[in-house]
Design brief:
Blueprint (H helix, E strand, L loop, with lengths): L3 H33 L15 E3 L1 E2 L4 E22 L4 E6 L8 E2 L4 E5 L2 H36 L5 H33 L2 E3 L4 E6 L6 E2 L4 E17 L1 H4 L13 E7 L9 E12 L6 E8 L16 E18 L8 E6 L5 E5 L4 E2 L3 E5 L7 E4 L12 E3 L5 H5 L9 H5 L6
Parallel strand pairs: 1-20
Antiparallel strand pairs: 2-19, 3-10, 3-14, 4-6, 4-9, 5-8, 6-7, 8-10, 10-13, 11-12, 11-14, 12-13, 14-18, 15-16, 15-19, 17-18
Length: 420
């Protein structure tokens, strides 16, 4: 039988072994209770109301000058193909008859060997001298026959024969004179002379080549002015007063290079006439514009070369009491978004332009309601009547530092300098 001291020792060991699990269980229970207790959290802040944001512009009635823009190609004035009028070997080609060279009116461009034609002229002159001698002899014979018939020394038949011989001699003289004129003309035609001040497009002949009658020698064109055929659509014609008759005033236009890296230089032109038929495909009318001194020979401006594509701006009529809307503010071709100045709410409306170009869409001023701004910022949706936040214009200082302007509230926008 165990003694009391042994029993106490066993009890103490059991208690020591049970104390550790109990302590763990107690710690877990207290931890669970602490975690499970509801923790007081502050309420979430109220959601801030978010508005659509846009820039706005004033809508003002104005007078808008229409400028019609079109494209064309510069064409030569009076293009001519020079051809030989006589046959012969080319003896000389002027340096002014090289491709791209300039020449003056009356300058000899090509010379054909003149020796055959000089000989022909000498023969024609000799034939003229012989026919003139024969005429003189026939006149003397006729005069002698007329004196003899008074004395009945010759018959009337002999007198008539002498008169006929004289008439034949006169005809021979006239024929010989004509041959001399023709020979002189042929000799003159051995020298191909420039018909005007111009420039050589192509040269088709060289020294030693045989030139036949009507064989082409080269292509030339005048340089006093150039012409540009400007296609004008039916819609554009409504706003242009194009000249139709010789007494109609010309219409001013400006031309710019369409292929160069810079369009800074402008050539002044005048529309002087229109073609009498419409284009069969596009139904456009073609206006002919004239550009004086296209190669800048009398001025210091750059040359306007033949075949050069150009863009043309033609002065048209002035539209009165209209609103010129920036093209970027027009959505879906015919829709704009307005902002009410009083409560800054949106209003969408469709428009019917009277004119449009690459920069503006023009509408009558009376179709735009009063008291509105024009929204110019693209927005994904524009619910009718919703309020918007006005984006103020960036100050010059902010723009120089690259700042884009910080959005303000609608009340701040009223103080940002947006005009009413």
């Amino acid at each position: 039988m165990a003694t009391p001291s042994a029993w106490i020792a066993r009890s103490a060991g059991f208690l020591a072994r049970a104390a550790v699990p109990c302590a763990i269980l107690a710690a877990g229970w207290f931890g669970f209770e602490w975690i499970a207790d509801e923790i007081d959290k502050p309420p979430p802040p109220a959601a801030k109301e978010v508005f659509l944001r846009t820039r706005v512009e004033l809508i003002e009635a104005t007078d808008y000058p229409v400028v019609v823009r079109t494209n064309a190609v510069v064409q030569a004035h009076n293009p001519v193909t020079l051809a030989a009028e006589v046959t012969g070997k080319v003896a000389r080609v002027s340096p002014s008859f090289l491709t791209g060279a300039y020449f003056s009116d009356g300058e000899v461009l090509v010379e054909i060997d003149p020796r055959d034609y000089q000989t022909a002229l000498s023969i024609a002159r000799s034939e003229l001298a012989a026919s003139q001698s024969a005429l003189k002899l026939a006149e003397l014979n006729e005069e002698r026959k007329l004196r003899l018939i008074e004395d009945n020394a010759v018959s009337q038949a002999e007198v008539d024969g002498a008169s006929a011989t004289r008439e034949q001699a006169e005809a021979d003289v006239e024929l010989a004179k004509t041959r001399v004129v023709q020979a002189e003309l042929n000799l003159e035609r051995t020298r191909v002379v420039a018909p005007f001040d111009g420039r050589v497009r192509t040269n088709l002949v060289g020294v030693g080549q045989i030139a036949a009658v009507n064989s082409p020698l080269g292509e030339v064109f005048a340089v006093d002015f150039a012409e540009v055929r400007l296609p004008i659509s039916g819609e554009q014609r409504r706003y242009l007063d194009l000249p139709e008759f010789p007494d109609d005033p010309p219409v001013r236009a400006t031309l710019r290079d369409a292929i160069g890296g810079s369009n800074d230089h402008v050539w002044d032109a005048e529309i002087v006439r229109t073609e009498g038929v419409l284009d069969a495909d596009s139904r456009d009318v073609v206006a002919i514009a004239r550009v004086d001194d296209p190669f800048g020979r009398q001025t210091s401006r750059p040359p306007l070369r033949i075949g050069q594509p150009v863009t043309a701006a033609i002065e048209g009529q002035t539209l009165n009491n209209v609103v010129a809307l920036p093209r970027g503010a027009v959505r879906e071709l015919d829709k704009i978004v307005l902002v009410d100045r009083s409560d800054q709410t949106l209003l969408s409306m469709n428009i019917e332009p009277v004119w449009s170009d690459s920069e503006h869409v023009v509408v009558p001023a009376e179709v735009i309601p009063e008291g509105k701004w024009l929204a110019t910022t693209p927005m994904p949706y524009t619910p009718e009547g919703s309020r918007v936040e006005i984006i103020p214009e960036a100050s010059p200082a902010a723009e120089s530092e690259g700042g884009a302007g910080i959005a303000q509230s609608s009340t701040d926008a009223g103080a940002s300098g947006v005009a009413n």
